[in-house]
Design goal:
Layout: H1 2-16, H2 38-44, H3 49-69
Helix pairs in contact: 1-3
Amino acid sequence: MTDKYVNYWATVANRLSPNKYVVGFDPLNEPLPAWTGIMQAIYEITFGHYDSTELTPLYTKVFEKYMDANKENLMFFEPGQFPDTLPIGPEG
């Protein structure tokens, strides 16, 4: 599934990079983990875990495709919204 998502963004970047009105790309808006069970939820509720183990590798692959399309492309990205935004988390 990840490969298809990365290839999608490669296609988008290749198509839109020449457009002078495109400022940059944001591959995910307010990303959240997809919990498939209680054990995965417990595993991912650790602060920063989702960002470091799932988002960062995905963002790295997508960013490489942006750079392949045009070295001047910008990538905007967001950290996971949960659990880092809980009142007891790093921001609380």
